[in-house]
Amino acid sequence: MTEQHTDRTGAPVSIALDRTRAVSAYTVSTQDGALAGRADFVDPPGAPGERVFFHTEVAPEFGGRGLARLLVREALADAVRGNLTVVPVCPLFAAHLKKHGEEYTAGGGRFRRPRPADLALVEETVRGGGDA
Question: pTM of this prediction?
Answer without folding.
Answer: 0.91
